[in-house]
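In this supplementary section we document a worked example of the pipeline. Step one takes a protein sequence of length 330 as its only input; no multiple sequence alignment statistics are reported here. Step two produces a three-dimensional model, which step three serialises into structure tokens for compact storage. The input and output of this example are shown verbatim.
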Amino acid sequence: QDRVAAKRQKIAAKQNTLRYVLEDVCETASVLLEKKLESTLISSLFSQLPDYNDFASVAYSPSLNFNKLHRLAEENRGLSSSLTDFVSNRQFCEKYGRKPKAILDPKIAVGQIGIDNSRLLFPILMSQPLLKWSDENTKHIAPKLWQHLMVTANATRIRLQDTSVRDPDVGILLGTLRILPMFLVCNHFSQTFEDALVQTMLSYREASDKHNEYYACAEVLPDTSFLEKVFSSMEMTLLNKLIEHIDWSPNTTYIKQALVEEVDGVNVSDRSVYGAALAQAHAFSIFESLNNSELFNLKHRPYWFSQVQMSGLAIAQMKSRVPGQLMNSI
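The serialised model returned by step three reads:
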């Protein structure tokens, strides 16, 4: 019995040590990740950032045509690949009564979905390759982040459809740009966690009383629990970096203004119509995500939406239009 008790005590001590080490590593990783995201150019944080201003200048112009859309697709390898994958998708082919067939030419792909749908989908398809989908450590986060982008983008468009703006489809680009910087937290997690683990190990090795902690490092597995804090602390810093990176032209400054209003936390009543729609869409997307996971206390719903001046009728109409299913509506 004494032997069993001693063994249990030893296991408990080992678990406590591992828990302590993991907390240490996560704290270091959080600091390293925030420092990296803050000090590095956004063009370096993303491997290949599309020219969103070029897209906006072309797509929301009255002179938009197939040739201009084709040029956009040809000049962006990520967009071209996402576009041809989309039209080769079995679900898309069956919807239009065609047998699934691999389409490799973006010009044919643009022709198949048409000008209006291309303009609608391009911001989404341009951004899809920017998220690291295959990382084992964050594969449970990436789809949720992507859905957050999809809902925010389409919900912004839906809110703009209830206004007098000339082109509500701008909402898709606005919502996409609002969420896009958050990809970076996810994308840079694995490398930063590894760096933090090595740094923590070295600090233990140099200490005279951290022998057990040093060897416990070998059992530490990546832990994403601290990312929620990083998302919250870095969200506006990264959005501002993206705004400053884009080379806005005179005919797209209204898009920039709506995003700047987000960074500055301007009250919805004082925002441009585009900025107000974006704030409402973002609030709805967060609500829907938490509500679907049964994490949103419905008692707080009136207060949550009152902050963005969104009525119960507007919320009900938004839910009925299922903004997260944009791709399925094409």
